[in-house]
Amino acid sequence: MSSVRPPDPRAVRSRDAALASARELLIEQGLAGLTHGAVAARSGISRATLYRHWPEPPDLVRATLALHITLSQSRPTGDLRADLLTELAGTRAMLHEPASEQGMRVMIERAAVDPKFAEVKEALYRSGTRVVRAILADAIARAELPAELDVDLAIDQLHGPLFFRRLVANRTFDLDYVHAVVDDFLRCHSTKPPRQQGIS
Amino acid sequence: MSSVRPPDPRAVRSRDAALASARELLIEQGLAGLTHGAVAARSGISRATLYRHWPEPPDLVRATLALHITLSQSRPTGDLRADLLTELAGTRAMLHEPASEQGMRVMIERAAVDPKFAEVKEALYRSGTRVVRAILADAIARAELPAELDVDLAIDQLHGPLFFRRLVANRTFDLDYVHAVVDDFLRCHSTKPPRQQGIS
Q1: ipTM of the assembly?
Q2: Is B200 touching A (CB cutoff 8 A)?
Q3: pLDDT for position A60
Q4: Which of A166, B84, B88, B90 is at a distance of 20 to 30 A from B177, taking alpha carbons?
């Protein structure tokens, strides 16, 4: 029996190959192309293996997005402006990386009609906003943001413009745009006197 | 020949029946359910008629959304805060009406992988932001907003939080939320001294 062996390197390679193919299909065709059959055909991994790792299509999308969210999250330093800029730069990167961008688009469409996608989306929303929520809570604790700040609204004001511009207006944007969103937010809410802030 | 007759009332009824069925299918199943075959089966309208009016599925989504956008748009009065509140209340209504909400979700997903959807989405984005753009331009002309205001960013800051909360966070929201978004925006950007603003 194989149950006491360490992870089989071939199994790891199979998993990576399957996710790479899933990623390509998601970028090229959206969710419609992301079937277990299509992933099997492209990756050469058996359907049985695919179903064992990812029983349903939402699991394939989740696997792709969860990796990107983990990679894009920053580690706050206690400097409010710098921390917001770093974290939103990660969000910007996710919105411009073809697989994670398309994964988010798929989630937005499917979550409204498929409970399994809705559940995956809720988990991704929570993990995707965890760091910015912590940054805001810490700044409130340091009295750099007002105690009465509506943190959920603040998250919408920080993330919302980025998502709207990329996914609704279908425009790309650069880091200057992220700076403008963060600096407007701080100008509106910061309890500290404004300082001269460059756009770069 | 029928070419000189006025519009046939039966044709109008057929068109309405087809759009009503398209709307139901969009709400229930998302884009996957919105095929000409399914609309024909539900509405009793022939496929030939459907293809004549709406050659492709994006045309069916566009017909649904265009109507909602037209209905939701307000007529500015020259009072910046009141105009923004009225216009964003219309956006809020679209985000909470099942057919237009689902239509926007479909557009967000499909526009990235289907050029025909991307074209329809661009047209809808332009018409959907036309009034708020006019409100902002008029306020700049009246010097109630600064001449250097980045209007595209301002549109993202006004619409972005609403779209993010409804389509990404998957939360509903009420008019108090719309007031908070507008009042924060004005507090940040208005050239007029702030006045006491109630939340209702």
Answers
A1: 0.84
A2: no
A3: 84
A4: A166
* A91 contacts chain B (CB < 8 A): no
Residue B8 pLDDT greater than 90, yes or no: no
* Secondary structure of chain B as H, E, C letters: CCCCCCCCHHHHHHHHHHHHHHHHHHHHHHHHHCCHHHHHHHHCCCHHHHHHHCCCHHHHHHHHHHHHHHHHCCCCCCCHHHHHHHHHHHHHHHHHCHHHHHHHHHHHHHCCCCHHHHHHHHHHHHHHHHHHHHHHHHHHHCCCCCCCCCHHHHHHHHHHHHHHHHHHCCCCCCHHHHHHHHHHHHHHHCCCCCCCCCCC
Range of the domain at A18: 9-55
Question: Residues A150-182: pLDDT tens digits?
Answer: 999 999 999 999 999 999 999 999 999 999 999
Determine which of B164, B185, B199 to mutate to test the interface with A (most A C-beta atoms within 10 Å).
Answer: B164
Check which CATH number belongs to the domain holding A128 and give it: 1.10.357.10
Same domain, B45 and B85: no
Task: Tell me the mean pLDDT in the region B137-155.
Answer: 97
Residue B51: which CATH number?
1.10.10.60
Residues of chain A positioned with their CB less than 8 A from the CB of B177: 153
